[in-house]
Write a structure and sequence with these properties.
By secondary structure, this protein is α/β, with parallel strands linked by helices. Helix content is 28%, strand content 12%. The longest helix is centred in the middle third of the chain and has 21 residues. Pfam families: Methyltransf_29.
């Protein structure tokens, strides 16, 4: 067995009372593709704006390709609940936002970079899992 540790994603520190902890979030649905404050502030090690934008574009392209080769994706209601077991930045869920389904984004406990806060800042749902 392993001792349980805190698994709440902490908000980044602020330097003044007028600042919003973590940074201002865009309104929905703009926040889905806007640069999350954790990335713009450099709080997520190794994740830059370029990495974030590339990941978002890559998943949009992949979903477009999947739709072209898997006809079942176009059937409304066929898929309702999807688990992304290695969600990283939530790009897969963001690319499916127009579909009538929801994606549970999972960040592995063993992940080298904790990106669950980025997923939350995009307005998506997620959890840790091993």
């Amino acid at each position: 067995y392993k001792n349980m540790e805190t698994c709440i994603t902490p908000l980044p520190n602020v330097s003044g009372i007028q600042e919003v902890a973590g940074g201002e979030l865009k309104k929905w649905p703009d926040r889905l593709t806007a640069l999350p404050p954790r990335i713009s502030s450099g709080s997520v090690q190794g994740i830059t704006e370029d990495v974030y934008r590339a990941d978002t574009a890559l998943w949009k392209k992949r979903i477009g390709h999947y739709r072209a080769v898997i006809n079942q994706l176009e059937e409304k209601g066929r898929y309702r609940n999807i688990l992304d077991m290695n969600a990283h930045l939530g790009g897969f869920a963001a690319a499916l936002i127009q579909d009538p389904l929801w994606v549970m984004n999972v960040v592995p406990v063993e992940a080298k970079v904790d990106t669950l806060g980025v997923i939350y800042e995009r307005g998506l749902i997620g959890t840790y899992m091993s």
